[in-house]
Backbone:
């Protein structure tokens, strides 16, 4: 009797990896569906962000920018879209750390699965959840008067940039989850996301920040995606005052690609060393 290897059964290594990636992603998504409290908590983040920054603090920030509150909310929403993508790092890091502690990754590695799929499935699940979160934010934004002005094609391009950013941050979270000692440590590292999220052109434009803070804020990957999506949505944006701001659309693609190119191989290398 002839033994058939996995790549032969699935037709090719790419097909094998794709099928296994979907299996792992489905596991993570079903885990969320079976724990509705965790799913609800995840989906409440974008809802609370719109309510807090759009209405509780919106008028004050609008005064600082010398614009009415409704115009500030138009400026704000693309920033909140990107913030939601960034805050997903925490959930990814904690989930991966729990899988490491529970031996889930070790069991997956013992199966005839594509090694890349063990981690890529987590990233795919994050991207699917990000699409759900963005759908909620778009609906809330429309309800509160926000709108895109440049047509369906530009909206799709803007959402594509946001999903690409989430994919990059997912690999950051995967790598951190493999490196930390456990879920408790992962929760503490989540505090590092706040400087990344706030020192950027998300809530207020960088030209309102002190000079020493404006430079790192302008070069923050979040800022490039936020500025690019504002342009694609046709929303109000502050004038670009730096090279990276003038080339925001290009950098909104290059930053996530560079992050994935760095974190993916490092995560795979760390996965191979687990349990040694």
Residues:
């Amino acid at each position: 009797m002839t033994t058939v290897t996995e790549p032969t059964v699935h037709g090719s290594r790419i097909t094998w990896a794709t099928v296994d990636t979907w299996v792992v992603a489905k596991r993570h998504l079903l885990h969320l569906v079976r724990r509705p409290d965790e799913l609800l908590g995840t989906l409440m983040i974008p809802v609370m962000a719109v309510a807090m920054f759009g209405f509780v603090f919106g008028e004050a920030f609008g005064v600082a920018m010398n614009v009415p509150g409704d115009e500030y909310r138009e400026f704000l929403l693309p920033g909140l879209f990107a913030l939601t993508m960034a805050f997903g790092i925490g959930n990814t890091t904690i989930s991966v750390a729990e899988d490491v502690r529970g031996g889930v990754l070790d069991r997956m590695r013992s199966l005839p699965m594509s090694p890349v799929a063990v981690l890529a499935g987590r990233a795919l699940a994050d991207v699917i959840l990000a699409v759900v979160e963005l759908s909620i934010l778009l609906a809330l934004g429309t309800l509160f008067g926000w709108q895109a002005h440049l047509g369906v094609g530009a909206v799709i391009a803007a959402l594509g940039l946001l999903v690409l950013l989430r994919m990059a941050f997912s690999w950051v979270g995967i790598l951190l989850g493999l490196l930390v000692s456990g879920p408790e440590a992962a929760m503490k590292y989540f505090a590092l996301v706040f400087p990344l999220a706030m020192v950027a052109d998300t809530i207020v434009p960088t030209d309102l920040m002190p000079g020493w803070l404006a430079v790192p804020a302008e070069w923050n990957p979040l800022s490039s995606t936020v500025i690019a999506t504002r342009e694609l949505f046709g929303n109000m944006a502050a004038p670009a005052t730096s090279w990276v701001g003038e080339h925001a659309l290009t950098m909104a693609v290059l930053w996530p690609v560079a992050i994935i190119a760095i974190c993916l191989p490092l995560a795979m290398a760390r996965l191979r060393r687990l349990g040694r």
